[in-house]
Amino acid sequence: MKKVNTYEFPQAKGVVVSGDIHGDFTQLVYKCCVQYGMTDTLIVVAGDCGFGFERPGYYEALYNKCSKRLSKANNWLAFIRGNHDNPAYFNLQPIRHKRWMTLPDYSVVEACGHTILCVGGATSIDRLWRISDKEYHLPNPNDPLAPNVYWRDESPFFDKEKLAMIDEACAIDTIITHTSPSFCELSSHQGLHNWAMRDEDLLDDVNHERKVMDSLYTHLRERGHPLCRWYYAHFHQSWHTEIDGVLFNMLDIMELKELPTPLVLSS
Predict the structure, then answer these.
(1) What is the C-alpha separation between 190 and 16, in angstroms, rounded?
(2) What is the pLDDT, as a whole number, of residue 187?
(3) Disulfide-capable partner of 233 in 46, 71, 152, 255 (CB 3.0 to 4.6 Å)?
(4) Residue 247 scores a pLDDT above 80
């Protein structure tokens, strides 16, 4: 019987969401652990982490470089896939250390009184340019982690089966995704229409991506989940507003936003 992918961080005293980092792993660790002096904190990167452009050994070396600093501060890093990530790093989870792990889509994170649903994926508006790049290679089924610059299975998907299991298992109060519902900013990614002049399917694929997020939002609201916050990145700008009781936060590159700790009412 399939189960919900659940990740618990009972020692965490805070949860912080980061916008795109585009491969700047060491900079993020320095910013959190040294510059801001965070301790006992779970940091979740909302996609476009940068997994897949190098060989797996490169990311292991990065972890080894950062692990001492993370351990000393008692911090954890969890990564959601963006369109600039190889989905195999999240589906197969070759990176799964105590303080540094990729999360498959529809994973649930439990920390600091929050139950957080994580769903990755988006559409690369520059995909034609990436496919034409000399570094692009056709997918190799025998080496799913081979370096590349574009992955065709980048888009988010609506998984009814996993959502049904989540409905039965827990109550979601927070969502972290890479892209956003259609009713949130930005209404159009910068440069989208210029790229669409050369990519005839691009606008349809981007619209579908946002509709997947709409369906996710509608499902959770209709099933009675106590949803109150939604964090996303992707658009390289900062914005937030409340819509129907849900606070939506768009995070800029390397922007950090802390989740409020739920109030515990004394009996």
Answers:
(1) 26
(2) 80
(3) 46
(4) yes
Three-state SS letters, 225-237: CCCCEEEECCCCC
Say if residue 97's pLDDT is above 50.
yes
Answer whether 60's CB lies under 8 Å from 30's CB: no
Return the bridge partners of 6, or none: 108
Nearest to 167, CA basis, from 244, 115, 245, 232: 115
C-alpha 100/C-alpha 81 separation (Å) is 14
Residue with tokens 């991506």: 209
HSE toward the beta carbon, residue 239, CA cutoff 13 A: 15
Q: Could you give all domains of the chain from N- to C-terminal order, each with its CATH number? A: 6-258 (3.60.21)
Peptide bond between residue 202 and the one before it cis (omega within 30 degrees of 0): no
Nearest-5° Cα angle at 150, 146 to 151:
75
Give me the phi and psi of 253, to 5 degrees please.
-55, 125
pLDDT at 1: 52
Concatenating the DSSP letter of every residue in the chain gives: -----EEE-TT-SEEEEE---TT-HHHHHHIIIIIS---SEEEEEES---TTSS-HHHHHHHHHHHHHHHHHHT-EEEEE--TTS-THHHHS-S-EETTEEE--TTEEEEETTEEEEEE-----TTHHHHHHSTT-----TT-TT---S--TT-S----HHHHHHHHHH----EEEESS--TTSS-SS-TTHHHHHTT-TTHHHHHHHHHHHHHHHHHHHHHTT----EEEE-SSSS-EEEEETTEEEEE--TT-EEEPPPPP----
Check: CB of residue 181 under 8 Å from CB of residue 218. no
Q: What is the pTM of this model?
A: 0.96
Q: What are φ and ψ of residue 61, in 5° steps?
A: -65, -40
Q: 232 to each of 35, 80, 211, 242, 264, how far by Cα in Å?
A: 23, 10, 15, 14, 27
